[in-house]
Amino acid sequence: MRVSINTITPDTATAEVIGWAHEIRDLGGLAFLLIRDRTGILQVTVPKKKVAPEIAEMIRAISRESVVRVKGTVKPEGKAPGGRELIPDSIEIVSLSASPLPLDVAEKVPAELDTRLDNRFLDARRPRVGAIFKIRNAVQHATRNFFYDNGFIEINTSKIVAAATEGGTDLFPIAYFEKEAFLNQSPQLYKQMMMAAGFEKVYEIGPIFRAEEHNTTKHLNEATSIDIEVSFTDHLGVMQTLEDLVRNIYQFVDKTCSDAIADMDLDSFAVPEKGFLRLPYSEAIEIAAARCEEEIVYGDDIGSAAERAIGEEIGQMYFIVDWPSSIRPYYAMPYENDPEICKSFDMMHPRMELSSGAQRVHQYDLLAEQISKKGLNPENFEFYLNPFRFGMPPHAGWGLGAERLVTTMLGLSNVREAVLFPRDRHRVVP
Q: What are the C-alpha distances in Å from 311 to residues 287, 348, 358, 383?
């Protein structure tokens, strides 16, 4: 009966394993086969004079990355991975791999990112790459546990919509029978509508689509967003929820993913300290203006160069708060005593923005007015505005980019590394 490689110890008597031929070394009278499954690597040692002749022949027939089944005796061996080796009684080639390989799974020969993504099924066999997605799985698992434990309801909203969520033109149009439709930029409008439904605390983990013509290491055209909306709170309340979630995720990964972290050979893995700094937008602009070569003034959005400059100054996760209303979405609540500023925030890693959120406008008249001020027609948002006529509670929320969270957590150089099959302006396959 097949067992996982990580369950085999030096004290195991016999074992049957099935996995990929990670590496093969034939030294004449002695051969070594490293066999790999998703749990680890096992050394199969073949002393040719002590095993059946057909086993020695089989070793010569195996190509790298073939799927093989090996049965044999386990012996302690301090120099082997895991301190044990398998002396085979039988070897079977289950599926022979073609040669040469498009990329080196053993990682002795580096491959360009495009080559890796073109052959993602093979790239993901590499222990370091597999570790990224084990950790991403833990991130999403911890996220759902956190929301469940804190009384949130998971929702699933439509990704086919008739109008832009945030305004603007960054939309992917689709053929939808006789109607005009688009892929959704965000679940924003729908999660707000669920506040009118009395759900009070909702979250969604799902895809979002942005038709932005970027060629950067941090942008995707299809991304995974972790979104929440909460009634009877303000921007400060959901900022605290966001900080608590992120620290909880890091703690969960630190506790449950030691093997994957080791496979990634990270220099360090540190849980962010409690109490993220709250940096007013006006002060953030001053820092950026002092440290950036490019000009930046109050009222400008904060681009990549400014993000890096501010991040170098702060050196840890932080919030940028109190943004000018003019550069934030129509649904951001303005301050009562200064409508030019809104109760909006971004959560930042020193490398990049991770999340954006705000307290929302919950008054129908003010919301319709702000939609108009952004150059949009309130009539196009009637399905969204209608619930605000019938008792909409005060509410706030945010969206957090799953890929950016994983990218910054693991120190990846490109956000595409955190996606199995990324979509950008040049890539629609595989």
A: 10, 8, 21, 40
